[in-house]
Amino acid sequence: MSARKSILITGAGGLVGPLLATRLLCDSNYSQHTIYLTDLAPPIVPSASSSIPADRLKDVIPIQGDITSPSFVSSLISATLQDGANLSAVFIFHGIMSAGSEANFELSLKVNVDSVRLLLDEIRTQAPGTRVIYSSSQAIYGQPLPAVVTDDVTPTPQSTYGAHKLMMETYINDLHRKGYIEGFVVRFPTISVRPGKPTAAASSFLSGIIREPLAGKECVVPIEDRGFRSYLSSPSTIAENLVRVLEMDSDKLPEHRRSVNFPGISVSVQELLDALEKFGGKEKLGLVKEKRDKGLEKVLRSWPTDFDTSRAVGELGLVVDEGVDGLVGEYVESLKRKE
Amino acid sequence: MSARKSILITGAGGLVGPLLATRLLCDSNYSQHTIYLTDLAPPIVPSASSSIPADRLKDVIPIQGDITSPSFVSSLISATLQDGANLSAVFIFHGIMSAGSEANFELSLKVNVDSVRLLLDEIRTQAPGTRVIYSSSQAIYGQPLPAVVTDDVTPTPQSTYGAHKLMMETYINDLHRKGYIEGFVVRFPTISVRPGKPTAAASSFLSGIIREPLAGKECVVPIEDRGFRSYLSSPSTIAENLVRVLEMDSDKLPEHRRSVNFPGISVSVQELLDALEKFGGKEKLGLVKEKRDKGLEKVLRSWPTDFDTSRAVGELGLVVDEGVDGLVGEYVESLKRKE
C-alpha cells in the first residue's frame, strides 16, 4: 500500500484557498492526496457538487487555529505527516491584506512576516524539501515604474504589505537555494471579479465595481480617474496557474530567483464600467460612486498597471484571461449557477 | 545648558566602528556627542593620539553585551538616552560575515536578521525618528549582473548573508516611509586594505593579498584568475562617507528607497599584485598562493565587479578613492605610523 500524500493550504477561509481546494478535488491526479485547510476562522470546506466526487470530501481536513502560534504551527505540520504521509506541498495564502497592513503595522509584522517564518521553519525541520508555494503580490513594486513591468524591474514597495511580502520572498529564495525547501513565489494580479464581501485590500473596489451593482448595491470607487489601469486575473485562471506551479519542474526557475509574476490583463476603470453596462444594463452604472480617497489612491497609484509575462506564458506554461468580458462573464455565470 | 547628544555604534569590535568613532572624536562638530560603542567582544575604544583631543576620550562609553538579547538591546538604547540625552544616530555595523553566514544559517538569522529587528524596534519605541545608518553589502546582488551595476539593478542575492541583509534593507525602507525612524541603508564596497587578521568574509583575501605579504606572511587567493575584478574602497573613504550620510539631508533619497551604493573602484587581482610589487618589492609576490576554493569562488563570482555611483558622488556628495595605489598607499602609510 502506498503512503498517502498531503497538501496543506493556509488562509483557507479566504478566496483562493477554497478555489484551489475545489480545483484539486476535481482532479483525478490528486485522488491520493489529503487536503488540509487551515485558517483562524473556520476553513471553508468545499461541498459536494456536480464536479467534486462525493467520496473525495472525506479527504478534506479543516484545522482551525492561530498560525501566529508556534505550538499550533508545529502541530499543523505534524498533522499533515500523520501515519507516514508525505507532505507534497504547502500553499501559503494567509495574511493581512494591503489596507489592513498599512493601518496596523504590528499586526502585519506578526501575520505577514513572523507566522510565515514560523511555518517555513517548521516545514524545513519536519519535512525538508517540501514544495512551498507562497503568494506574494504586485504590491512589492513601487514607483517609479515603467508602463509595462518586466521580471527585471526592481521591487521597491511603497506599502507595509508590499515590504513584508518582499521580505518573505527574499527569505524563501534563500531557503530554496540552500535546499531546505522547494520554493516558489507567485505574485497574483488583483483577482477580479472576486465573489463575497468587500475586503481590507486597497484594490477591493476592482471587484466591487461589478459585484455590488449586479447585486443592487452601491460601490464606492476611491479614485476619480476612469483611465486608471489595474492588472487583473479571474479566480479560475489563478487556480489553474497554481496547479501548474504545483506540477512545474523546479529547475525552470534559477535557484536564487523563485518568483513568478502571474499573467493577467491590464484593465481601466472605464473598461470595467463598460463591462458592467454590457452584462448588467445601463441602470447599474448609477450604483457606482466615484469618490476620491487620497490614502487609498496613493497605495493604488504605487502599483504596476501592466506586466510583460511572456516568459511565464511561454517558458513556464501559465495561462491568461482573454479580456475584461471574460472576467466579468465568468462572474455572471457563477451567479447563474447559484440561482 | 543644552542636553547632551548620543551616537551609538554596534559591531564596534570590528573594523568600521572604531574607524568611525575615531573620525567623530577628531571632528569639532561632534564635541557635544557621547559615543556609545557596543559589541559581543569588548568594544575597541580609540586611544589618545595626535588627532584625538585627550578630553574627548571621556565621552566614549563602551557597553559590552549580546545584541541578540532583547533585555540587553532595551537597556542599550535606554543608556544612550540617560539624563535626557538626545539620540542623534545609530550606526548598525554588527553582523556575521558572508562565509560565516553561509556556513551557519541559523546564526546568520539570529544575528543578521533578528537582532537588527530587535534594535530597530527598540529605537522606534524609545527614540522614534532617530537617524539609523545600516550597513548592508554588495552581496545583496547576484548573477546575472551587467558589467556595471546601477541603482536600477534588481538585488537577487546568492548567499544567505546577502539575503538576510536585503530583508533588513526592505524592513528599514518601510520603517522610514512610515516615519518610525530616519533610515539610511549604505552598501559598502569590499574594504581594502583592511588592517588586522583574516576574517570570515569571502572577500578576506582582497586585503590579505597586500597585508599578509607586507608582514612577511603567506596569503591564499581562492580564485585562479588574475583578471577577476572586485569593487573596493579604502577604510578612510568609508569613514568619510559615513559622516557625510550622518549629515545628509534626509529628503535627498525617496521615502521608500533609502539605499546608497557607496563609491568604490573596480580592481583586478593582477592590479593588486602590481601594487604589492610596487610598495613591497618583487619578492613579496612569492608569498601569494593562488589556490581555487570552489565554494568561495561561487560566492565571489555572484558579486558585482563595478558600479555606476555617479548619483552618489554627484547628487549625494560622497567621495571616492583615486586608484589602487591610493588604497595600498594608505595602508603602507598606516604601517609607518605604527612603527
UniProtKB/TrEMBL annotation, chains A, B:
<dbReference type="InterPro" id="IPR001509">
    <property type="entry name" value="Epimerase_deHydtase"/>
</dbReference>
<feature type="domain" description="NAD-dependent epimerase/dehydratase">
    <location>
        <begin position="7"/>
        <end position="222"/>
    </location>
</feature>
<dbReference type="Pfam" id="PF01370">
    <property type="entry name" value="Epimerase"/>
</dbReference>
<keyword id="KW-0119">Carbohydrate metabolism</keyword>
<keyword id="KW-0521">NADP</keyword>
<dbReference type="InterPro" id="IPR036291">
    <property type="entry name" value="NAD(P)-bd_dom_sf"/>
</dbReference>
<protein>
    <recommendedName>
        <fullName>NAD-dependent epimerase/dehydratase domain-containing protein</fullName>
    </recommendedName>
</protein>
